[in-house]
Amino acid sequence: MSPQPVVVLRRGDSGPAVADVCDRLMLTGDLPTSWADRAAPRDRALFDDEVEEAVKSFQQRRGLLVDGVVGRSTYSVLDGARWSLGDRVLRYVPDYFLEGDDVAHLQARLAELGFSPGKLDGIHGPATDAALRAFQGAVGLTADGTLGPETLRAFQDLQRSVTGGSANALREREQIRRGGFSLTGRTVVLDAGHGGGDPGAVGHGLVEADLTLDLVRRIEGRLTAHGVEVVFTRTGASGGEEIDRAAFANSVEADLVLSIHTDHAGAAAAHGVATFFYGHGDQARPAQGAWSTIGEHFAELLLREVVARTGLTDCRAHPRSWTLLRRTRMPAVRLDVGYLSHPADAAALSDPLTRDRIAEGVVVALQRLYLGDADTARTGMLKLADLRRHIESARDRQPGSPGPSD
Are 9 and 24 in contact, with CB atoms under 8 Å apart? Predict the structure, then answer.
């Protein structure tokens, strides 16, 4: 089901809710089963150091924010981790989506057999329902969208039909290829992090919410000049929680989502730029396709272009299953552009020229994403004024392209 509001639990808390969390952590193997023998009665179960480390272990494996706190996002994934495919009947329920590892396994199986469920996110939404019904119809079952014993047996009797890599990755690449080179007509959601009553990181006279809004406005001006329809999740006030921003991006059927943030750390030495895309490295998870190939590619392109233009330190691209990255149906990438707690990063970001260079890097990275194999530009060298000429050159290099005299 969709993540339900839960009380945030952290070290020092106690009570039945802590016991429920520990039950789930023991099922996932992050908390030793011996904890139950040592624990106090359920109504006095304590969120101690051992439980906090178990939560961090789970968060690390699942690509969540590793803070040792059980909030809405962590609880949703933790609750879903207890289900294996076949443990319960699965069906699509509008406005009350089932979630869990069993759904992720179902999505992976459908994708392997050539029935696309969309992003392999462990959420039983409309795309998963349509793919399940299509599979049932193809094997002669009643296409009722219910995963029961007969449909499970049909899965067991069939082998995957897509070989040579992840079916989902192949499908994502083909979708990009068919879209053509041009940015014109595409819809991009720009998400300026924080806002409203949440200022985000603050340091050296800079406020994250204000800085990210300035950056998305600079990016918007350059994207619209290339025919891209840009939609903001906020223009001043807060755009809501990440789950609300993801739902908004899905509602406008965007081609891509870019979320802009800065960072802050207690250690003043922390600095640099990082990007994040949907995915996680938990090898125990049944859905090995829970990874956005296009998101990863754009995250890497974006990171390289921004670093080359600004001189900020490359902190690499990382897979994460944060709410905005997981719950958007299209590829989504988050850019954390510098630490406001670091004097040099803050000084660079306070310069409008640096922010212009970041905006240029975003647009060039997005264009390079759609150029695909035709992209021969060197990182950091392509300028906005060169984009149209570069696109035409790429078209001319494609097999079957008409020559200048044709």
Answer: no
Q: How many CB atoms lie within 10 A of CB 76?
A: 23
Determine the straight-line distance between the first and last CA of the chain, rounded to whole angstroms. Answer: 57
- Measured between alpha carbons, how far is residue 134 from residues 46, 155, 170, 308 in Å? 47, 13, 20, 46
Give the pLDDT confidence of 291-318 residue by residue, as tens digits. 898 999 999 999 999 999 999 999 999 9
Least confident of 235-239, 247-251, 332-336, 356-360: 235-239
Tokens of 145: 């969208």
Q: Retrieve residue 339's tokens.
A: 């630490």
Residue at 63: amino acid letter: G
> What single letter denotes the amino acid at residue 116?
S
Which residues in 228-271 belong to E strands, given as ranges?
A: 229-232, 256-263
Q: Give per-residue pLDDT as tens, 311-361.
A: 999 999 999 999 999 999 999 999 999 999 999 999 999 999 999 999 999
Q: Which residues contact 386 (CB under 8 A, 6 or more apart)?
A: none
Helix (H) or strand (E) holding 109: helix 101-112
Angle at Cα 375 formed by Cα 371 and Cα 379, nearest 5°? Answer: 120
φ, ψ of residue 9 to 5 degrees: the values are -115, 140
Q: What is the DSSP letter of 237?
A: S
Strands 332-339 and 273-278: antiparallel
Q: How many CA atoms lie within 13 Å of 297's alpha carbon, on the beta-carbon side?
A: 18
- The number of helices, as runs of H, and strands, as runs of E, in the chain is 15, 8
Counted residue by residue, the chain has a size of 406
In sequence order, which residues have a C-beta less than 8 Å from that of residue 18 and are 6 or more positions away? 9, 45, 46, 47, 51
- Contact predicate 370/181, CB 8 Å: yes
By three-state DSSP, how is residue 257 classified?
strand
Are 31 and 23 a contacting pair, CB within 8 Å? no
- The DSSP call for residue 276 is E
Average pLDDT value over all residues in the chain: 87
pTM passes above 0.90: no
Q: Which two tokens stand for residue 104?
A: 């992720």
